[in-house]
Design brief:
This protein is an alpha/beta fold. It contains eleven helices and 14 strands. The chain starts with a strand and ends with a helix.
């Protein structure tokens, strides 16, 4: 099982600056490289404080120079927002820059306002992504792109990169894209959000239907879980983290509407019906001591049997020192126990 550090790179409060977020992200990735995380991810979002990163490949190439062994992932490249002929070159260059340590996460995207701002048809994104996926595979495996399709047409074009297809991860997809992932062995990335393991089982079941339809025959689909985690013994930090997690849940939901509630780029924190209380989050999510976080994540492994867990610690809005301390305790104290749990589950299977 691969264990990764996720970097959304959001502005968590009005006083936080893009410069601070960038610096903290780089420091967190360097720390993750040192203390045993297998991989790290960088998000792509546009036009809101949900993320300052418009292209995760920029962070991959930046962090390639300041890390030694950790795999660097795009979590994710929203392919319909990119020219695929350009994207295949940029992905190949990023793989070159990081010495083959690239994990390629791709997705259709879902935020209406991003598509509207770019003037791209939101409704056709899944159909277009099949062509974009074809172009990526063709370019990265052969060093050439020659494609004529419904959405894109390119003449025979040589690519100035050494051919090589990185591991592919797929997020936010349904239907035929899930079937394609099942055929090709791509790992599915699913956000567990604030759900318990049992609450997340229907998400896995729905994804598994698509994988099986595509011909997947293994016991468990290759599944990556996105988890929101903060390791601390300080009750005030725990509460601050839970408040940050609720704000993140509100923002995530608000970004699904055509016009997100914001002032400039700054998102409003809009309560939603049925949202969890802070006390519920403190009791049921992996926020708290090493023992509590380890217990919850080990239960996730037992119930959901993921092949990958992506862990995000940067949602609290706390200063850099506290966030990095949480990352360090997660890496040094939780990850070894989690790996042991995964090994035990694999043996039991």
């Amino acid at each position: 099982m691969e264990l990764a550090l996720f970097n959304l790179m959001s502005l968590n409060h009005d006083q936080e600056t893009p410069e601070q977020v960038f610096a903290m992200t780089a420091a967190a990735v360097q720390l993750a490289d040192e203390i045993g995380f297998d991989a790290t991810w960088f998000a792509e979002h546009h036009f809101t404080s949900a993320s300052i990163c418009p292209n995760p490949l920029l962070m991959v190439t930046h962090c390639a120079a300041i890390t030694k062994r950790i795999r660097l992932g795009t979590g994710v490249v929203v392919l319909p927002l990119h020219n695929p002929l350009r994207a295949v070159q940029e992905i190949g260059f990023a793989q070159l820059a990081c010495g083959g340590r690239l994990n390629l996460g791709i997705a259709t995207g879902h935020q209406f306002h991003e598509f509207n701002s770019y003037g791209i048809d939101h409704a056709s994104r899944s159909d277009a992504m099949h062509e974009e996926w074809d172009i990526l595979v063709q370019g990265l495996t052969t060093g050439r792109v020659n494609h004529q399709g419904k959405h894109y047409s390119y003449p025979d074009s040589p690519i100035c990169i050494a051919p090589g297809l990185p591991p592919i991860y797929l997020a936010g997809a349904a239907g035929s894209l899930l079937e394609r992932a099942g055929r090709t062995g791509a790992t599915l990335l699913v956000s567990q959000g604030v759900r318990t393991a049992e609450m997340a089982l229907p998400l896995k079941a729905k994804a598994e239907e698509g994988y099986r339809a595509g011909g997947f025959t293994g016991r468990d689909i290759p599944l990556g879980l996105q988890r929101y985690i903060f390791v601390t013994d300080d009750p005030s930090e725990q509460r601050r983290a839970a408040e940050g997690l609720l704000k993140l849940a509100r923002t995530t939901l608000s970004l699904r509407v055509p016009v997100p509630p914001r002032d400039g780029v700054r998102m409003h924190s809009v309560p939603f019906e049925g949202e969890p209380s802070i006390d519920w989050l403190l009791e049921n999510t992996p926020i708290g001591s090493v023992e509590k976080v380890t217990r919850i994540l080990s239960h996730d492994v037992k119930v959901l049997r993921p092949s990958h867990i992506s862990m995000y610690c940067g949602f609290s809005g706390l200063p850099q020192a506290q966030v990095l301390a949480a990352v360090e305790r997660l890496g040094r104290d939780v990850l070894p126990a989690l790996r042991r749990s995964a090994e035990q589950e694999a043996l039991a299977a």
